[in-house]
Design goal:
Belongs to the WD repeat coronin family. With 477 residues, the chain is mainly beta. It is 9% helix and 37% strand.
């Protein structure tokens, strides 16, 4: 059955996308060509971070938002990882703290100086080792300060208490690589998608799987909680490899699909990433290929209503999404995306604007939103306390910065024991894809060494010939 958008009345119905002019873009950035399924970009109200292509390790750029234009090739980088950087996320409560994870099995916490980097940063304020394989995802807890989640290719999710710099909990219920993690509003539940084609809702502090679902007609790749509505939105592919959206009901039945309310047109050339915002009445955006599509979630059928589509011929590597408190409310901006265009080495800011005639504050499109103050400390959350995020109004333009300062603990520990298991020694068997990847890497290395040896042989012959000619020259006779 072909996909057809359904139109209805909505205050977001006429939202449109406005691309920034070239001088307000970020140009000359060597965006990573890594095929890992992530955004490779993170943004907050002060900084833009982008994972870059590099040799001999992993690196990413951190650029102040006001420093637009062409970025010099020798611009300082964060380059302390020994492997490719796979994910980066800003701390929601301390705007100059960023977490990164890499193929070198580590998670690192970096403190960016005021005004941005002046030289390459190689020393992290905190290095976290607990995974036995590369780490593909990091997520900050939405309400508790200094609680970080990381998911690795060892099929484990570790919960880090950054006050002590150690993993305090381990979620070990997955049988394959974890593709996505998402929290509900107060952070009491964690939804995950996995390569084993299952969607799980987990209680993170106990590691207990509360609900689990597997849908034959919808292979789930990405998931996001829809605020406090007890619903989840997933994107994935159908059995015919067409991109697909599904809305899931969490309560009272086990997680079950209410139906796939739209088949996104196009082949599986790019995964679709959902970007959800609070509250539930706000629009949701879905990005894939070069376009951004808007939907609105309702409480009655058809539940998922199409609003509009922003079209662009240039495919995007990923999108950085500005938090709500960083938007320009005077221009009725409800979203701001930072689009990564790999072929051009370009980062394009795209503002989604609701057209309004009045220049006054539009309270109906800017409800209360989470600010930069944590609701809980790490020990409170770990002891079982749940609190909703501290909400703020954007009426006067929210510019308040958190007074919390990150203090890295001093520690020296070779083994990492969680739930009685040494995580660095309990290594699962390698998958077929990993073995193939290692084989091809070794073949590439052998080919490179042969080429170097061949070049050296040619150079030796040239030197021998020059020496022979020099000896037979008339001057020597």
């Amino acid at each position: 059955m072909s996909w057809r958008p359904q139109y209805r009345s909505s205050k977001f119905r006429n939202v449109y996308g406005k691309v920034a002019s070239r001088e307000h873009c970020f140009d000359g950035i060597p965006i990573t060509k890594n095929v890992h399924d992530n955004h490779f970009c993170a943004v907050n109200a002060r900084f833009l971070a982008i994972v870059t292509e590099s040799a001999g390790g992993g690196s990413f750029l951190v650029i102040p938002l006001e420093q637009t234009g062409r970025i010099e090739p020798n611009y300082p980088k964060v380059c302390g990882h020994q492997g490719n950087v796979l994910d980066i996320k800003w701390n929601p409560f301390i705007e100059n703290i960023i977490a990164s994870c890499s193929e070198d099995t580590s998670v690192r916490i970096w403190e960016i100086p005021e005004g941005g980097l002046k030289r390459n940063m190689t020393e992290a304020v905190l290095e976290l080792y607990g995974h036995s394989r590369r780490v593909g995802l990091v997520e900050w807890h939405p309400t508790a300060n200094n609680i970080l989640f990381s998911a690795g290719y060892d099929y484990k999710v570790l919960i880090w208490n950054l006050d002590i710099g150690e993993p305090v909990k381990m979620i070990d219920c997955h049988t394959d690589v974890i593709l996505c993690m998402s929290f509900n509003t107060d952070g009491s539940l964690l939804a995950t998608t996995c390569k084993d084609k299952k969607l799980r809702v987990v209680e993170p502090r106990s590691g207990r799987v509360l609900q689990e679902a597997s849908c034959k007609n919808h292979r789930v790749n990405r998931v996001v909680f829809l605020g406090s509505t007890k619903r989840l939105l997933t994107t994935g592919v159908s059995r015919w490899n067409t991109r697909q959206i599904a809305l899931w009901d969490q309560h009272p039945q086990p997680v079950s699909p209410q139906g796939c309310w739209g088949l996104l047109p196009g082949s599986l050339s790019n995964l679709t990433f959902p970007e959800a915002v609070n509250p539930p009445s706000s629009p949701r955006s879905l990005q894939g290929d070069g376009n951004i599509r808007y939907y609105e979630i309702g409480s009655e059928k058809p539940y998922l209503s199409y609003l509009m589509e922003f079209r662009s011929p240039a495919p995007q590597k990923g999108l950085g999404v500005m938090p709500k408190h960083g938007l320009d409310v005077s221009a009725c901006e409800v979203f701001r995306f930072y689009k990564l265009v790999t072929l051009k080495g370009l980062i394009e800011p795209i503002s989604m604007i609701v057209p309004r005639r009045s220049e006054t504050y539009q309270e109906d499109i800017y409800p209360m939103t989470p600010g930069t103050e944590p609701a809980l400390m790490p020990d409170e959350w770990l002891s079982g306390v749940n609190r909703d995020p501290i909400l703020v109004s954007l009426k006067e333009g929210y510019k308040k910065t958190s007074k919390i300062i990150f203090k890295a603990p001093v520690r020296e520990k070779k083994s990492v024991v969680v739930n009685g298991i040494d995580l660095l020694e309990n290594v699962p068997p390698r998958t077929e894809n990993e073995l193939l990847r290692m084989f091809f890497r070794q073949q590439d290395e052998i080919r490179r060494l042969k080429e170097e040896l061949s070049q050296k042989d040619i150079r030796i012959r040239q030197l021998q010939l020059e020496l022979k000619n020099l000896r037979n020259s008339p001057k020597n006779n």
